[in-house]
């Protein structure tokens, strides 16, 4: 082996998860951590507040459903895009997945807000698919790693989002009142889980 060959670094091999684990010691822009945590906190609080409104509102209507899901989806989508844009030092897979999902979720929210008179099934499909996309994005983040989160809590949060998406998708067959309550509960559970599973700042990079 020549001196040139010995001086060359072997290309990195292994799964995406392995590469993420090897890069854990690399310096990460603190803005990436702050933006990710802000995304989780804002979307979690918004989900809980809107979920409670949906559950306790005395006379559910399509307009209420549109406002609840529209505001949540716009907030979640925009904050996810911000986290992706400011995710300096994170993996390209996470940034592209988060940015794409955030854009789609935000557009779905705008659709519900622009035309609140569409059928209930449309709201259910938009919100359910958005929940599923959020769950997939969370699982991708858990797999490739993110300095602002821990793997296990992110997996749990992603799975709960997937379950919430399935619940919302199958609920339109129920009455409007029942659908609104089910959807509100799903929002509260997903939001509370996101906040409760967010690791302390000191443990965020483990």
Protein described:
74% of the residues lie in helices and 0% in strands. It is an all-alpha fold. It has 8 helices and no strands. Helix 3 (30-56) runs antiparallel to helix 8, helix 4 (62-85) packs antiparallel against helix 5 (92-114) and helix 7 (151-170) runs antiparallel to helix 8 (176-196). Mean pLDDT is 76; it is low at 3-26 and 202-206.
In short:
The protein is 74% helix and 0% strand. It comes from Curtobacterium oceanosedimentum.
Number of helices: 8
Measured distance between first and last alpha carbons: 38 Å
Measured on Cα atoms, how large is the radius of gyration? 19 Å
Q: Which bin fits the share of residues in helices?
A: over 70%
Order of helices and strands: HHHHHHHH
Q: Could you tell me the number of beta strands?
A: 0
Query: In this structure, how is the largest beta sheet organized?
Result: none
Query: What portion of the residues fall into strands of 2 or more residues?
Result: under 5%
Q: Residue-averaged pLDDT, rounded?
A: 76
- The 3D shape can be described as globular
Low-confidence stretches: 3-26, 202-206
In terms of structural class, how would the helical and strand content be classed?
A: mainly alpha
């Amino acid at each position: 082996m020549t001196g040139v060959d010995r001086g060359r670094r072997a290309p990195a091999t292994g799964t995406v998860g392995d590469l993420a684990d090897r890069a854990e010691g690399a310096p990460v822009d603190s803005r990436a951590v702050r933006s990710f945590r802000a995304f989780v906190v804002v979307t979690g609080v918004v989900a809980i507040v809107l979920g409670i409104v949906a559950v306790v509102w005395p006379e559910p209507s399509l307009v209420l459903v549109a406002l609840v899901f529209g505001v949540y989806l716009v907030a979640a989508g925009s904050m996810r895009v911000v986290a992706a844009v400011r995710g300096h030092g994170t993996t390209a897979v996470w940034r592209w997945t988060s940015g794409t999902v955030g854009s789609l979720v935000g557009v779905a929210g705008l659709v519900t807000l622009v035309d609140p008179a569409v059928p209930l099934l449309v709201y259910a499909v938009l919100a359910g698919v958005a929940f599923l996309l959020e769950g997939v994005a969370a699982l991708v983040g858990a797999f490739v790693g993110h300095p602002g989160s821990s793997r296990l809590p992110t997996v749990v949060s992603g799975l709960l989002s997937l379950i919430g998406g399935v619940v919302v998708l199958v609920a339109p067959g129920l009455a409007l009142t029942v659908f609104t309550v089910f959807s509100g509960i799903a929002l509260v559970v997903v939001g509370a889980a996101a906040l409760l599973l967010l690791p302390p700042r000191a443990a965020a990079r483990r």
